[in-house]
Specification:
alpha/beta, 39 helices, Rossmann fold, seven-stranded parallel sheet, 1037 residues
Length: 1037
């Protein structure tokens, strides 16, 4: 065969046959005018073996691996910039943060950058106290993993009432768009799996757990799953797994990365906690002893919990020169606003309660009749409405009377009317406000009456009670409303129009009533309720518009239902009135969390309105007092966070239903309600040994140092703006600068050639817009002027970056020449890239290195961005000797690559060993138990016990399965430990020549004077530091 080879090892091939430039690794003849070629993608590092004919080669561009230095210097420099932008997270330790609209706190940075991103695979329980900013931490994780190309399909599972908050914050702060998938989305698309149709999905915990939903969800593999309020997926025990726990198992088995978020990770029970942690790693926590071992070491490999005491701001310089890190959370000061009802109002309470008890007792006597259950639910709801406001009670009485009158005309239908399935009380507490209102509307037409005459009697009673309520309203005799007005005077709201108040009620009717009263008293008022759509900040009548009006001061008093209980942040206000007390104690904590959170700088005042001479008011007041007593005794605010672990959400509802139905007397009511509200139970959770795993302090010194390093290395708006302008010039894309706004442009229509990149298989960003509005590379300018912020991770910048790489490929192969004002003699710059890869093939880190070589073959490292200091020039006819100097690969390997590998290895080994220790401990413990089980079974077989042989076979199978699991995990962890340098290659070479006019007077003054510069910098640093400012050296950026 002929030895002729049209291509050689080391050359680069580009063209329509490949979706990226390919480096030739091997070439051999494979028949006449055909060659078998081994290729490696310069971007993906994937190997391909292809057959190429001579006609194929004619369609390709072949780039030489030996530099000629006659490439276009501007394009080469743009190519290096484009490559570096693709891995910018390697240079900036907080890169995901620098391209997001957030200013995170120390504990958030520590969680993401010191824990999660160091894991080979994210399997983690983040259990910080409530208010720690979990959405920000999750958003940062999503952004960082996407920048590394590790995730594309993301699923977030959360309580239904938090979905909007997640969607909004991820869009506003990280420009991440998630679709909220609801039940009707799945029902309406029959024959299609909606989980497969979307890349980024938000859904509710209770939708995802449904038996009819799980099969479709189980067909999808997710790159990243995040579960909020994950403690709701806890199992009762090994043999009783809840539907939510089974959902957790499915998500564990169908995802690469899994992040669980909760403020209450355990119930003080190591066995239950072990089962919960098995949702992260079935092997590491397969036995409860692994939890106890972690408690002994005060560290678990998949778990991080920081208490509120550990959460602080970055230190600030005080007037006396000291630095203080202020705590994030201010004090929370509760007050009970007690009042008593009397006269006509008390008569109304007595009569409505008598009606409720009569109907409830009648329903209880009919057992499991669906209509009886409906009436039981409706009556307890009426009693809650009565406690809320007379107006809300009147509206319900009138509505039921009207519905029964309509039904009376079709008496036979009314008798046969079957109510919808009533959710259990816990599910009712999870329902969205509008769903509960619709359910109430349907149930108002249900009756237990056996005849038309009985229906008429009930209608008359309802009308009498409604008229009685109208009378109370008309004479203005409602005690709670009077107490509200007095309190508004006492707290200065009438005198201080800039003082803001958040007032909560359970019911829309009460909210409407309050709005009218507050307006009549002269207040600027607004409201948020479940019937409002999310909308936008500039769209009147929406939640976001109202929230923004409150923050801006256009609204002084914001009245809200539970729709605002979660997902809205109102740190601008520090006073909250609970006009009615929710029967679900968790709701109180959620309400307080709207104002008592990060960004609140004042102590929060909470006022709880309670009618002390009603049954409901008395027991709720006693519950609040008991919780406060326990909080004061334990000196721990987390008492309020874990109340849901002691009292189920519907506990009060169930107890009072039993009371109305006559199954519980007055004397037993308080005992039954408070039986479980015991200091010992709260202490068992709040001060349990498991809390020893919580981190009490932060390594602030290290975080401050790293933040300073990030500031030094951060991509500044000028750099991105210059890159955009340089790139646009090569694609006929006009970016018109906006004269009064720096780093801001009005772009023309997006060129079609850029939009082609979004069709590539590895494109993981949203599609490009046909025409972008005004854009800015400066975050502050973009936010202030409502502009599109373009930064790494934005589709427009990514398309330009990819286009630059393709254009620059030929010039990178040729190399280029530059003039330097600093150099006195010729030099060569070699640019290399290198990756650290583990045994599973996952790229752990990738970096660009620049090595400068001078005439005497002396080498030194340079910043990869150094080409910005030089001017492109034509290649000389007679290159200096340094142009032909040997590669600096050996020197680079010793000075940079080996230390790079060892740095990554040390970090990885630390994390892997921690995990491996738990896996080994847990599975070995289980194997010992399996051995004991085999021993017992063998003994029983020898004694010829019935069924012993079957038990022996099961025990031996269990032992074999455990051995296989241990070996499988050992091999997996071994591969994760096995790190190597791969893809080490020279990207390009650049010839640096002294500027030919560097000694002329005109050019000499342009040359840097390093001595003068150093003196000037020292003076500036000293001055700024004396003013208490932090100074970052970015003069080379």
């Amino acid at each position: 065969m002929s030895e002729y080879k049209p291509i050689r090892e080391g050359q680069i091939l580009t063209g329509a046959l490949f979706n990226e430039p390919m480096r030739v690794e091997t070439v051999r003849e494979d028949g006449p005018s055909r060659w078998k070629v081994g290729l490696v993608g310069t971007q993906s590092e994937r190997f391909r073996s292809v057959n190429l004919s001579s006609s194929d080669l004619q369609t390709l561009t072949i780039l030489e691996s030996i530099p000629t230095y006659n490439g276009d210097g501007k394009l080469l420099r743009l190519g290096i910039q484009a490559y570096s932008l693709g891995i910018a997270y390697e240079f900036d330790p907080y890169f995901g943060l620098s391209i997001s609209r957030v200013d995170p706190l120390p504990h958030q940075l520590e969680a993401i950058y010191d824990y999660l991103l160091k894991l080979a695979r994210v399997r983690f329980l983040l259990a910080d106290d409530a208010g720690a900013g979990k959405t920000i931490m999750a958003g940062l994780l999503i952004r960082e993993l996407k920048l590394r190309g590790l995730v594309e399909r993301v699923l977030i599972v959360c309580p239904a009432n938090l979905a909007f908050q997640w969607q909004r914050e991820l869009k506003e702060k990280f420009d991440e768009k998630f679709m909220i998938l609801k039940g009707y989305d799945i029902r309406d698309q029959f024959g299609m799996n909606q989980w497969l149709e979307q890349r980024q999905v938000l859904t509710s915990l209770d939708l995802a757990k449904r038996e009819d939903i799980l099969p479709g969800l189980g067909q999808v593999h997710w790159d990243l799953v995040i579960v909020d309020e994950a403690h709701r997926m806890s199992a009762s025990d090994e043999t009783h797994k809840t539907a939510r726990y089974k959902l957790g198992e499915l998500l564990r088995d169908s995802s690469d990365h899994l992040l669980l978020l909760t403020a209450t990770p355990h119930k003080g029970d190591p066995v239950n906690f072990s089962l919960f942690l098995q949702l992260l790693d079935y092997d590491a926590y397969a036995d409860v002893k692994s939890i106890r071992e972690a408690m002994g070491r005060r560290k678990a490999p998949f778990y991080l919990r920081r208490t509120k005491e550990a959460m602080v701001y970055f230190p600030e310089r005080q007037e006396d020169g000291t630095w203080i890190a202020r705590k994030i959370f201010t004090k929370r000061i509760p007050h009970t606003v007690d009042f008593q009802i009397d006269g006509a109002e008390f008569d109304l309470y007595r009569d409505v309660t008598r009606f409720v008890k009569y109907q409830s007792t009648k329903a209880a006597a009919q057992g499991d009749d669906p209509r009886a259950r409906a009436i039981g639910f409706l009556m307890s709801l009426y009693q809650r409405r009565l406690a809320s406001s007379t107006h809300a009670m009147r509206r319900s009485l009138e509505n039921r009377a009207k519905r029964l009158e309509v039904g009376l005309k079709r008496a036979q239908e009314l008798a046969r009317l079957v109510p919808p399935e009533i959710p259990d009380p816990e599910e009712l507490e999870e329902m969205e406000e509008q769903e509960r209102e619709k359910l109430e509307e349907i149930l108002e037409a249900i009756t237990l009456a056996g005849s038309a005459e009985q229906v008429r009697e009930e209608i008359e009673e309802l009308k009498r009670l409604a008229a009685q309520a109208q009378g109370v309203e008309s004479c203005g005799a409602e005690a709670k409303l009077s107490r509200l007005k007095i309190l508004l005077h006492q707290e200065g709201f009438f005198d201080q129009s800039d003082k803001r108040l958040l007032i909560f009620t359970e019911f829309k009717d009460t909210l409407d009533y309050l709005m009218g009263c507050l307006r009549n008293w002269g207040f600027r008022v607004g409201c948020i309720h479940g019937g409002m759509k999310a909308g936008f900040r500039d769209e009147p009548g929406t939640r976001l518009y109202t929230e923004q009006q409150f923050k801006d001061g256009a609204i002084q008093i914001l009245a809200a239902t539970e729709a605002a209980g979660e997902g809205i942040n109102l740190q601008c206000c520090n006073v909250l009135f609970n006009y009615d007390i929710p029967w679900n104690p968790n709701r109180l904590e959620q309400r307080m969390g709207r104002i008592h959170r990060y960004g609140q700088h004042k102590d929060c005042l909470i006022f709880n309105f309670v009618a002390t001479n009603t049954i409901e008011g008395r027991v709720l007041q006693r519950l609040l007092e008991k919780l406060q007593e326990i909080r004061d005794s334990l000196e721990d605010d987390s008492v309020f966070n874990v109340v849901g672990e002691i009292l189920p959400a519907a506990h009060i509802e169930r107890v009072l239903r039993d009371y109305y139905a006559g199954r519980l007397g007055d004397a037993d009511l308080e005992d039954r309600l408070l039986r479980d509200v015991d200091e010992g139970r709260f202490r068992a959770i709040c001060q349990n040994a498991l809390e020893g795993l919580a981190t009490k302090t932060l390594n602030l010194e290290m975080l401050i140092e790293r933040r300073a390093k990030a500031q030094e290395r951060r991509l500044v708006p000028e750099t991105i703006a210059r890159f955009l302008q340089d790139s646009a010039g090569y694609v006929s894309f006009t970016l018109k600068p906006i004269s009064n706004l720096p780093h801001t442009f009005d772009p023309a229509r997006t060129p079609g050639i850029l939009r082609n990149y979004e069709t590539q298989t590895d494109w993981k960003l949203p599609a490009l817009s046909t025409k972008y509005p005004r854009i800015s590379t400066d975050r502050e300018i973009a936010e202030k002027n409502n502009l599109e912020w373009v930064t790494p991770g934005h589709p427009l910048l990514e398309a330009l970056r990819r286009h630059d790489l393709n254009l620059a490929q030929e010039h990178l192969g040729q190399g280029a020449c530059f003039y330097s004002l600093q150099h006195e003699s010729p030099a060569r710059l070699d640019f290399y890239r290198a990756r650290v890869v583990d045994g599973l093939g996952q790229v752990i880190h990738e970096r660009v290195f620049a090595v400068e070589i001078v005439d005497n073959d002396k080498c030194q490292m340079q910043d990869p961005g150094i080409l910005g200091n030089f001017m492109p020039a034509d290649a000389p006819q007679n290159p200096p000797p340094v142009a032909l100097a040997s590669k600096a690969t050996a020197w680079l390997n010793e000075q940079a690559l080996t230390p790079f590998l060892e740095e990554v290895r040390a970090e990885r080994i630390h994390e892997i060993e921690n995990i491996a220790e738990h896996v080994e401990f847990s599975l070995t413990e289980l194997l010992q138990k399996a051995d004991e089980e085999i021993g017992r079974a063998v003994s029983e077989v020898e004694q010829k016990v019935t069924g012993a042989e079957g038990r022996l076979a099961q025990a031996e199978a269990r032992h074999a399965e455990l051995l296989a699991r241990r070996e499988r995990r050992r091999q997996e962890l071994g591969r994760q430990r096995a790190l190597s340098l791969q893809g080490v290659e020279r990207i390009t070479s650049v010839l640096i020549l002294p500027h030919p006019e560097r000694e002329t007077p005109e050019v000499r003054r342009l040359r840097p004077d390093f001595e003068t510069e150093a003196v000037a910098m020292r003076i500036v640093i000293e001055h700024e530091s004396a003013q208490g400012r932090q100074v970052y050296d970015v003069h080379e950026k």
